[in-house]
TrEMBL record:
Source organism per UniProt: Ottowia pentelensis
One Pfam family cited in the UniProt record for this chain: Zn_ribbon_TFIIB
Sequence ranges assigned to domain Transcription factor zinc-finger in this UniProt record: 16-57
Keywords noted in UniProt: Coiled coil
Coiled-coil intervals, chain numbering: 200-227
Protein name: Zf-TFIIB domain-containing protein
Length: 253
């Protein structure tokens, strides 16, 4: 698990840009043995990144972060406020939309470049840890729970009427162990290439991609994942439980 950042005893915690409550400071692994202090609000499910911090996270740091998020996945959630403020200068954060291969996500940046605020779901989309739900999966989920909450903005979505969030227009996506596995392997491979110079594609990376292709055929098994879950309307919590189970098994092996 993550270690508390020692300097928090000397400096007051940052206020959450949304709810203004003190955020939790945690240290995670960065590149080249560095430690990066992240600030999290579990009630708002949000992360504050000082300028450039998200780019300096090492794969091991991301695994640590998953452990922290999983430990708090059942915490009561507070909807995001309308006017988010920078915890450094208190100026209103500028809302923007970024598009990556795995979807679109909202981000909130300080106009003075102190950093940015992102929901946990937006961070996972940014890093490629999610996959979009297929039409059959959405139809099946609609029969089971009907209403889910958008991972990007928290708004309720009636799956019998919408196949994307009608408020922020984000596609419905799931935090998926296979997507996390592939993304972490890609990050690790990039770090190794940067340290060792150009090299041929790693066999392990190729095997992971092959396994990813096989998993696409088995997506109907997703139905079993949703059966019996107490919070099936919260795809974030369901997916996080599965991802952390896979990560924990990998660490033990």
């Amino acid at each position: 698990m993550l270690d508390p950042v020692a300097v928090t005893a000397l400096t007051p915690p940052l206020a959450c840009p949304s709810c203004r409550a003190p955020m939790s400071a945690r240290a995670v692994a960065g590149h080249n043995g560095a430690r990066i202090a992240l600030d999290l609000c579990h009630a708002c499910r949000g992360l504050w990144f000082d300028e450039g911090e998200s780019l300096r996270l090492a794969p091991d740091g991301i695994v640590d972060l998953f452990g922290e998020l999983n430990a708090h996945k059942d915490d009561a959630q507070t909807p995001l406020g309308h006017d988010l403020a920078c915890p450094r200068c208190r100026r209103t954060l500028a809302e923007g939309v970024d598009l990556v291969r795995t979807g679109r996500y909202f981000t909130y940046r300080c106009p003075q470049r102190h950093g940015r605020f992102a929901t946990f779901a937006a961070f996972m989309i940014e890093k490629g840890f999610v996959r979009q739900l297929s039409a059959p999966e959405i139809a099946d989920l609609a029969e089971r729970v009907r209403i889910i909450h958008c991972g990007s903005c928290g708004a309720p979505i009636d799956l019998r009427q919408h196949d994307a969030c009608p408020y922020c227009h984000s596609a419905l996506s799931l935090l998926d162990p296979k997507a996390v596995q592939q993304a972490l392997a890609d990050y690790q491979a990039r770090a190794q290439r940067a340290a060792a110079g150009p090299r041929a594609p790693d066999l392990a990376d190729a095997l992971i991609r092959l396994e990813q292709d096989r998993e696409r055929v088995k997506r109907e098994e997703q139905k079993e994942r949703w059966q019996g879950t107490a919070r099936a309307d919260d795809l974030w919590a369901v997916g996080l439980s599965e991802v952390w189970g896979w990560l924990s098994a990998r660490v033990k092996s």
